């Protein structure tokens, strides 16, 4: 039976030695572990990751492997060097600062990149050992961005999702990474790629388009003919856990105790892991300014500042810790009194019940990261407000701000705004607090962690189904054999060939797509057999088509069916054509050329084409949307059709298309075997015009009226070669 495997850098378990030097296992109660608990603990399912203990001792490794097996976990052991260069190095000193827009902290060291690749390979190898090709894999976070493609190489059909827990930066930042393309390709090995917010997803798609030339349609990309979905899945919390803990007698009792020691004060709460992205120092600076500006609050409010130790082996973090300690000392020294301490600073972590008591009793939560993928602390604070009283001040630079619009939103770089928000929060009427918290709680209840997990898994299933439905089209060995057999028996074989993208690949300059030696050979040989009637049917103008294909004994159909030229005869049109509409449309296209450097107009006898292949990525697509809606509006009362092709927009008479001309051609010629191949939307008309038993073949993976599909023009050439050789 197939299973599901979760993979993250760190396993949700803590392993420690007790006094007798024996290993002790403590499962983590973190949000992710709770949310995924419903998955990895079921049946044969597994969670693979680093168990958090450094050991080179093989016996100990075996003991740990066995010890965590009953928790449905499997270890990837990392060495000291791995931790230094892969985890602290590339993950936390290259990717983390770059992705959080702290580019001044990012280091770009080739040996750290080598370590990142090596450890990602180590993870991939361990996963491959445990996984079967029909399993479902869910890979987590920035430490493992190369793993998806490594697995895909081994298991082409495995179902695999990837989720990034931190922000994905704008293209302008991401492009600074020397290994940006490798990282993108690594992630694109997945079938579903999830981010916390729409902005992260948008940034990722912009990078795939600009760096790899892979564009998307509503978040769907085609990567080596595999459909890949990119979407946003804002992560939620285990709402009931926080609400229930906050309402428990144990937490209530703690609150009473703390209240007695702190006296009658309003409390502001700040909880984060030690990290420069969290804006802890900036928050303290603002707190200082608050006391200067509003001295009446001295003695009346305190800040509970919890900083959870994290990565303090990394230089930047050591410095940050010292900065925070300095600031706390300065503020306490400046404003403190014998009976009042402005900041209660804790550099450690607390058990959930203590944390919950802090959440409960805080009047204000000050969550002001400079940048944060989501931020769960703010959500946990709101969920813990059982009486709905309390105010959340939230940075607009964290993912959670997109959902929690009822919070007091601030820009963390605007100190004045933070100071005023503290003042507003401390004086907000209770009814207003209740209203805001009710809205936020309703949303957090609905979009909780279970919802997040289910949504991701359902989307992964859906994209897999889409891939499978497209797969059924693929021209496999058996169908090819059958086709060649029918072909060999037939006496009147009709072969319709589109040109660009079907017989040749795409090039920047359309003029450069002329036939190469291989194609010339194919054309020469395929027409040698008098039973083969070949028709090249293209959107190209008739002169170019004639120049490239006219020398072979083939029939030509040019300009999407406007012109036809049978062997040895002259060009003619199928119907009487008009082109007086051009004088109205040309000035519009010229306007777009003026506004879009790199674009140009191609004038054919009965159509006009706007090309944007050489335009800056993104700008071309934007102008296309403007231009097509402009043209569709102009064409609404005429008989014109606006077609969007590969980096082109074409305007032509609606009455003519490849299908209509192909039908006319078929009426005039006998046939007992029909083959038609093409790659874009204009070829769909040809496919539809063919008899049911025809071998219609789409190049590429988009859905099509064709019966079969192949991956690229190279496959088409191979089929034609097989026909010649048969
Ligand atoms: C990354 C992204 C994204 C904190 N102090 C204590 C404690 N905590 C718990 C909190 C919360 C968690 O740690 C912190 O989560 P955040 O989301 O705030 O931040 P990161 O650790 O940076 O997480 C972030 C997240 O991944 C999920 O995708 O939201 O943007 O950076 O759950 O409660 N827990 C206990 N004692 C403490 O003292 N028990």
Give the overall average pLDDT: 93
Number of strands: 29
Q: Which architecture name of the largest domain does CATH use?
A: 3-Layer(aba) Sandwich
Q: In DSSP terms, counting alpha (H) and pi (I) runs of 4 or more, how many helices?
A: 25
> Any idea of the CATH topology of the largest domain?
Rossmann fold
What's the CATH class label of the largest domain?
A: Alpha Beta
Report the bound ligands by name, code or SMILES.
GDP-alpha-D-glucose
Looking at how many chains there are and whether they match, the oligomeric state comes to: single chain
Helix content: 40-55%
CATH superfamily of the largest domain: Glycogen Phosphorylase B
Q: What is the 3D form?
A: elongated
Strand content: 15-25%
How many individual domains?
A: 4
The biggest sheet, with number of strands, parallel, antiparallel or mixed sense and barrel status, is: 9 strands, mixed
Q: Runs with pLDDT <50, length 5+? A: none
Q: What structural class should be given to the helix and strand makeup?
A: alpha/beta
Distance between the termini: 43 Å
Give Rg in angstroms.
Answer: 32 Å
């Amino acid at each position: 039976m197939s299973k599901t495997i979760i993979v993250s850098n760190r396993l949700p378990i803590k392993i420690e030695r007790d006094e007798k030097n024996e290993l002790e296992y403590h499962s983590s109660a973190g949000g992710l572990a709770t949310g995924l608990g419903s998955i990895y603990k079921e049946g044969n399912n597994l969670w693979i990751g680093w168990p958090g203990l450094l050991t080179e001792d093989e016996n100990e490794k075996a003991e740990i492997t066995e010890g965590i097996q009953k928790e449905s976990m499997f270890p990837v052991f990392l060495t000291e060097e791995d931790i230094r260069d892969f985890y602290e190095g590339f993950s936390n000193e290259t990717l983390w600062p770059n992705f959080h827009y702290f580019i001044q902290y990012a280091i770009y060291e080739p040996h750290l990149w080598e370590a990142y690749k090596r450890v990602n390979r180590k993870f991939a190898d361990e996963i491959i050992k445990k996984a079967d090709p029909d399993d479902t894999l869910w890979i987590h976070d920035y430490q493992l961005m190369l793993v998806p493609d490594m697995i895909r190489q081994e298991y082409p059909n495995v179902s695999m999702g990837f989720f990034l827990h931190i922000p994905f930066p704008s293209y302008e930042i991401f492009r600074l990474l020397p290994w940006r393309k490798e990282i993108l390709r690594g992630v694109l090995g997945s079938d579903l790629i999830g981010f916390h917010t729409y902005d992260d997803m948008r940034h990722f798609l912009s990078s795939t388009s600009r760096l790899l030339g892979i564009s998307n349609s509503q978040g769907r990309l085609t990567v080596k003919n595999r459909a890949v979905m990119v979407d946003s899945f804002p992560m939620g919390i285990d709402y009931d856990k926080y609400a229930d803990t906050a309402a428990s007698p144990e937490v209530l009792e703690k609150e009473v105790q703390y209240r007695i020691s702190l006296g009658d004060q309003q409390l502001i709460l700040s909880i984060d892991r030690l990290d420069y992205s969290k804006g802890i120092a900036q928050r303290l600076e603002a707190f200082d300014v608050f006391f200067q500006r509003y001295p009446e609050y001295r003695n009346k409010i305190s800040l509970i500042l919890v900083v959870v130790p994290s990565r303090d082996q990394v230089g930047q973090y050591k410095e940050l810790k010292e900065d925070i300690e300095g600031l706390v000392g300065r503020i306490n020294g400046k404003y403190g009194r014998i009976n009042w301490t402005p900041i209660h600073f804790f550099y450690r972590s607390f058990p959930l019940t203590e944390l919950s008591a802090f959440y409960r009793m805080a009047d204000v939560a000050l969550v002001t990261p400079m940048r944060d993928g989501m931020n769960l602390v703010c959500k946990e604070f709101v969920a813990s407000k059982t009486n709905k009283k309390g105010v959340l001040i939230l940075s607009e630079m964290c993912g959670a701000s997109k959902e929690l619009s009822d919070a007091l939103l601030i820009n963390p770089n605007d100190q004045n705004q933070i100071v005023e928000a503290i003042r507003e929060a401390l004086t907000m009427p209770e009814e207003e607090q209740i209203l805001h918290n009710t809205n936020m709680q309703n949303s957090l209840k609905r979009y909780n962690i279970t919802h997040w997990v289910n949504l991701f898994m359902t989307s992964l299933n859906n994209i897999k189904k889409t891939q499978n439905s497209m797969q059924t089209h693929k021209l496999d060995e058996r169908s090819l054999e059958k086709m060649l057999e029918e072909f060999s028996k037939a006496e009147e074989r009709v072969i319709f060939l589109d040109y660009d993208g079907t017989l040749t690949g795409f090039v920047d300059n359309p003029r450069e797509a002329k036939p190469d030696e291989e194609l010339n050979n194919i054309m020469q040989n395929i027409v040698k057999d008098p039973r083969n009637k070949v028709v090249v049917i293209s959107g190209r103008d008739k002169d170019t088509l004639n120049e490239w294909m006219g020398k072979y004994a083939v029939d030509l159909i040019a300009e999407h069916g406007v012109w036809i030229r049978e062997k040895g005869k002259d060009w003619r049109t199928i119907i009487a054509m008009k082109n007086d509409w051009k004088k109205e449309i040309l000035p519009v296209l010229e306007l777009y050329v003026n506004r879009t450097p790199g674009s140009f107009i191609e004038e054919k006898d009965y159509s006009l084409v706007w090309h944007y292949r050489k335009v800056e990525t993104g700008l071309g697509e934007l102008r296309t949307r403007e231009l097509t809606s402009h043209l569709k509006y102009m064409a609404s009362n005429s008989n014109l059709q606006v077609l969007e092709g590969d980096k082109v927009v074409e305007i032509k008479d609606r009455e003519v298309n490849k299908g209509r001309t192909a039908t006319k051609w078929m009426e005039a010629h006998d046939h007992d075997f029909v083959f038609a191949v093409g790659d874009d939307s204009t070829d769909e008309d040809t496919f539809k015009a063919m008899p049911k038993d025809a071998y219609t073949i789409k190049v590429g993976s988009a859905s099509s009226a064709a019966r079969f599909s192949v991956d690229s023009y190279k496959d088409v050439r191979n089929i034609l070669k097989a026909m010649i050789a048969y």
